[in-house]
Design brief:
Order of helices and strands: EHEHHEHEHEH
CATH architecture: 3-Layer(aba) Sandwich
Shape: globular
Number of strands: 5
Strand order of the largest sheet: 2-1-3-4-5
Number of domains: 1
Distance between the termini: 23 Å
Largest sheet: 5 strands, parallel
Number of helices: 6
CATH class: Alpha Beta
Length: 148
Amino acid sequence: MSPKSIEIFLSYSGQDSFEAGLLQFAIEQLLGDLGVTVWTYERDQAKSERQIGKSLKLRIQNSVAVIFLASPSTFNSGAAQWMELAYADAFDVPIFVLLHQMTFKTLRTKEEGVPPLILEGQCNSASEWKTVVAAIRRTLGSKARTKK
């Protein structure tokens, strides 16, 4: 990561890699003027790196935001995606949840596997992804003004 790079971490289930790839490309195009890159495990994780968990934790800690793409496949993919969410919460990184092929009500009715870290106020329908991009832009703008 270059010193001028601003990273956003995109968390998603492997079954949603096509949608995540489109989202990653769109966000990088829309926020490219700010030097934003969107980091994903699938595209950006060095396969030779031995401590993948440590790398993910560091990437999330150094991100300005985490976009958590939640879908029905999130519940079938194991604990990795939920750990990414927990890291973001622990490091106080802003979390934006995009609900893909599900609603918040559906998410909350899951008997198991949904940590209490996901709040309704963080959730947006995946079709409203541009709203999330606008919120991240505002967040970056307010951080820039604070640093001056």
